[in-house]
Amino acid sequence: MNRWFSPRPRERVNELFGRETEVRRLINALESNSWVAVLGPRMAGKTSLAISSSREFAKRHGYSVVYIDLRNSTTLREATERILRNLPRGVIKKLEASLSSITIKGLEVRLKQNTSASGALEEALRSLKKTVIILDEVQKVREGLPQFLNVLSVAFNENPELLIVFSGSYAGLVKKLFSQTYSEGLYARQPIEITLNPWERNVAEEFLQKGLSECGIKISGIELEDILWELGTLPGWLSAYGLRRCLGDEHLKALYRVSESAVNEAKRELESLLEGRSPSAPMVVKLLSYGATWSELERTGISKRALHSLLNALMNDLYVVSKSQIGSRVVYRFTEPAYRKAALLISGG
C-alpha cells in the first residue's frame, strides 16, 4: 500500500503529509482537555487530521477513539442512534439494562419511541472511560442541534475522561453554531479551531513526487504543471490522482478522471448553496470564475444584501473564494480550479 495515496482517511500521523503543525496543535488541545473543531474546505484532509492526531494522542495516553460520520444524521435522534451504534458493546449493554431505552439488533441500535434522545446520549457519554469522540460533519444535524450541543457540553463537563473533536466542511456554519451556543451559555468555552487550508504549491509538488516515487513513477515538470493547474493543491484530489497513477493509469487519463470528479462535486456543492438565493446569484458565481470586483458583481442586478450573504458563504463557510488586491482593485475569485470550472456549468444567470 502506498504510504501517501489512499481513498480512505489516514489513521496514523506518519501517513499524514504536510500537516505537522496542525497535528501538534490538535494533540496539544486534547492534552489541555479542550474541545477541538477542525475546519476547512472539502478535500483538505480534515477527517484524516482528526483521526490520525486523535489516535496518536490515544496511543500516548491510553485512550480509545470513536469516529462518528454524521453526514446522514439530520436530527438529534438520528445523531444519537448513530453515536450509540459506534460505542463499545459493553457500554450499550449497560445502558440497555439501566435505561430500558435501547434496542439492540446485531449492530443496530434504536431508541424506543418514547425515549428522550438527549437523555440517552448524555447517559452514554457520561459512562465512557478515556475516550476521544470524533463527530464528523456535525453541521448536518439541523433539528435539535442546540440540545445536541448542550448534551455534549454537559457530558464533557461531567466526564473528565471524555474528549470531543468536531469537524465540518461547511466551516462557517460550524463556527456560527458554536458561537451561538456559546453566547447562549450552553457550554463554558468555545472550541480550539484548527483550520486546514489548501497546501502551498511547493508542498503539493513534494507530496506528488514522494508518493509517485514509491510506485516507481518519475513525474515530469510538465505533468506537475498540468496537475496543479487542473486540480489545485487540495490534498484529497492530489491523493486521488496519485492513487490512479499507482494503479496503472497514464497521466492524462488519471488527470481527466479526477478533474471530472472534482468538478462534479464542486458543482453539486455550489448548486446546493445557490438554492433559494437571488436569481442573479448564478451569474455572480460565474463571474467569480474569472475574478470580479464588488461593483462588477453588483451589475448582475443582485442586491447588496444578497451579494454580501453569498460572498460570505463562499468565503467564510466553504472557504472557496478569496479577496485580493490587484493594483487599485479588490477582486473576488474562486481559489480552486474545480470551483472555477463548476461555476461555469451552473444553469441560470
Summarize the structure in words.
By secondary structure, the chain is an alpha/beta fold. The protein folds into three domains: 13-195, Rossmann fold (3-Layer(aba) Sandwich); 201-267, Helicase, Ruva Protein, domain 3 (Orthogonal Bundle); 276-345, Orthogonal Bundle (Arc Repressor Mutant, subunit A), CATH 1.10.10.10. It is 53% helix and 13% strand. It contains 15 helices and nine strands. The chain has helices at 20-31, 46-61, 76-86, 89-99, 117-126, 145-158, 171-183, 201-214, 221-231, 235-246, 251-274, 281-290, 294-298, 304-317, 337-345; strands spanning 36-39, 64-69, 102-105, 108-111, 131-136, 162-168, 192-195, 321-326, 329-334. The strands form three sheets. It has a five-stranded parallel beta sheet, sandwiched between helices. Strands 3-4 form a two-stranded antiparallel sheet. A hairpin with a 2-residue loop joins strand 3 (102-105) and strand 4. It is globular, with a radius of gyration of 22 Å. The protein starts with 19 loop residues before the first helix and ends with a helix. The model has no long low-confidence stretch (mean pLDDT 88).
